[in-house]
Write a structure and sequence with these properties.
about 240 residues; alpha/beta; Rossmann fold; 6-stranded parallel sheet; 6 helices; 9 strands; about 25% helix; globular; binds the ligand O=C1O[C@H](COP(=O)(O)O)[C@@H](O)[C@H](O)[C@H]1O; 6PGL; 6-phosphogluconolactonase_DevB; EC 3.1.1.31; hydrolase; Glc/Gal-6P_isomerase
Length: about 240
């Protein structure tokens, strides 16, 4: 597992623009090395801002979108098309604007989908879709005020998951209450994990995660990649880190 590397940008807009540029390079490099690029998307404000930036930069055409496979780190378990679904937001921000084949967009089933209102069945189906031995190239994650990543919240059943790659999450402290999420072991099956966050409200969680907190109290601390772990921050989110 890789040690975290911290990159601080002067503001949220710059962070989103720089991360979009970084993502182009990572996808192109993955395609050059292995033919395909497997990318995990995140919801949240920073993650969506990165996708909007990626949509708007000419360099996005350097990516061969026909050889990109897309997944989600977590999904809000709501009807298809609900504006709160991470899928809906990612489609609007990027996916409706790039030529990624529909069959490469691996969404978590919606609450009005194949399994009806059963998040456990949706989680099991997503785990089956991932199969054995998957390795994402890049896993994008936001970070919550209390240190959640994907929908793995502090001291929740999900943070203790060791066997399953995907779990149903109920009674989330942040709405909506029912979600489907990758577990920390699944996140750690990524070559690169990029934790992206902005704003002073995140500064405490960032400092604790990078200051040695345990993953049960602060799930972001347990989100590491096999080759690289990047913390992409703005100055406000980095404001409680010790001076470097
Ligand atoms: O609920 C969620 O929140 C986190 C963080 O969101 P942000 O708006 O504070 O950046 C996000 O990473 C996660 O995917 C999402 O479902």
């Amino acid at each position: 597992m890789s040690d975290p590397r911290i990159v601080v940008h002067r503001g949220g807009d710059l962070l989103a623009a720089a991360t979009a540029a970084r993502l182009v390079t990572a996808l192109v490099d993955a395609q050059a090395a292995r033919g395909e690029a497997h990318l995990v998307l995140t919801g949240g404000r920073t993650g969506t801002a990165v996708l909007e930036q990626l949509r708007d930069i000419p360099a996005r055409d350097a990516v061969d979108w026909s050889r990109v496979e897309l997944y989600w780190g977590d999904e809000r378990f709501l009807p298809s098309g609900d504006p709160q679904r991470n899928e809906t937001q990612a489609r609007e921000a990027l996916l409706d604007h790039v030529p990624v084949p529909a069959e490469h967009v691996h969404v978590v089933e919606a609450s009005d989908g194949r399994f009806g209102d059963d998040p456990d069945a949706a989680a099991a189906a997503y785990a089956e879709l991932l199969g054995e031995g998957f390795a994402f190239d890049v896993c994008l994650l936001g970070v919550g005020e209390e240190g959640h990543v994907a929908s793995v919240f502090p001291d929740s059943p999900a943070v203790h998951e060791r066997d399953r790659a995907v779990v149903a999450v109920r009674n989330c402290p942040k709405p909506p209450p029912t979600r489907v999420s990758l577990s920390l072991p699944a996140i750690r099956a990524s070559r690169e994990v990029w934790l992206m966050t902005t704003g002073a409200a995140k500064a405490g969680a960032v400092a604790s995660a990078l200051g040695g907190a345990g993953e049960v109290d602060l799930p972001a601390a347990g989100a590491v990649g096999t080759e690289r772990t990047l913390w992409l921050l703005d100055t406000a989110a980095a404001s409680k880190l010790p001076p470097r």
